[in-house]
Amino acid sequence: MKKFTSLLIGCSLALAGVAMAQQPNEEASPGKKKKQGAEQTHATGAKPAEHAAKPHETAPKERGVHTEPGAINEPATAKGHKPHQESATTHGTEANVSGQPAAGTTPGAEQHMKGTKGHAMKTSPAPAAATPAGATSSMSATSQSKGQANVGAAAKKKPAPQQVQQIKAQHANFRAQPKPQQVPAVTYNQNYRIQGSESWQGPQYEVFRSYRPEWHDEGWYRSRYSRVELIGGGYYYWNNGYWFPAWGYSPSAQYYAYDGPIYVGHRAEPPDQVIADVQAELQQMGYYKGEVDGLLGPLTREALTAYQADQGLATTAAIDEPTLDSLGMS
Question: Is the pTM value of this prediction over 0.90?
Fold first, then answer.
């Protein structure tokens, strides 16, 4: 009995020790459970916050929505953070809201592009295809050089002043002879007017605009003009730098290849000598292909017209003051 009783007591003591050993663990477990509960509550409470703080997910849908005509509802900017100025392109690719390059055009991006029509920022249209600047400049330079070549071609061909003096010296004693078969004579017409002279502007052309053929006898001419000479088959009178046909002075000597004034300058050189000088110079420049005969016939007048056109002068087809100055013979 004593042994059995001792055994029971020992078992009881052992059980009591075990119970005492488990009691701290049970007391600690409620704290642990509270801590775990708080963590679980914190964890479960964080989920709504995450759902509440996702404006960037709805931003693409809201971006570009018009609240008023021409206005855009932009997403709010974080406090204290300066708004970032978006560029239309980032190294050739469009950027989405997150700043990452978009692989393609998305519905949100299209909506944003439509919204930017009312935005203050304007994009410059792409320049149309045009001729390269170098080509344009080369074309303009070519055109300019061609124009200068056409205008200055005759000037480059002009004989030097020494050659002009040689030409004049060769014709110092020149006398023209009438050639009615080669150069037909013009006839008197009191209603004749120099064609086109009304459009020749300037005082140097006034004598051509006002020219009217007149028929008078020898006495009339002698009483008015100091020089009346027989030149190349017809009589001419001298007046203020010009020789004019003296119609009616001598009915037997009225061969005129040209009916109009001939400018020779104030030295009163004979008109046939001046005509021969002009023919020789135009011949050297390649304008005149005929004979140097001192007659202002059709071939000479054609050469004068071509030369005057190249020089930018009035195309009078006559020897006038500007033409003679241009030839260096005045």
Answer: no
Q: Is 263 helix (H, G, I), strand (E, B) or coil?
A: strand
Which residue reads 């005045």 in tokens? 330
Alpha-carbon span 279 to 250, nearest angstrom: 28
70: region left, alpha or beta (phi > 0 left; psi from -120 to 50 alpha): left
Query: Which residues 6+ apart lie within 8 Å of 69 measured at CB?
Result: 118
Task: Give the H or E element holding residue 133.
Answer: helix 133-157
| Phi/psi at 232 (5° precision) | 60, 35
Query: pLDDT tens digit string along 226-273?
Result: 999 999 999 999 999 999 999 999 999 999 999 999 999 988 999 999
Q: Splitting the chain (330 residues) into consecutive groups of 10 residues, what average pLDDT does each group show?
A: 57 58 46 45 43 44 43 43 42 41 43 43 44 44 45 59 92 95 96 96 96 97 96 96 97 96 93 97 96 97 97 97 93
145-165 residue pLDDT tens:
444 444 445 444 677 889 999
Give residue 256's identity as a one-letter amino acid code. Y
- In which order are the strands placed within the sheet that holds 262-263? 228-231, 234-239, 242-245, 262-263
Phi-psi region of 219 (alpha: psi -120 to 50; beta: other; left: phi over 0): alpha
**Cα distance from N-terminal residue to C-terminal residue, the chain:** 172
Radius of gyration (C-alpha) of the chain in whole angstroms: 56
**DSSP secondary structure string, 172-228?**
TT------TTTSPPP---TT---TTGGG--SGGGHHHHS-------HHHHHTT-S-E
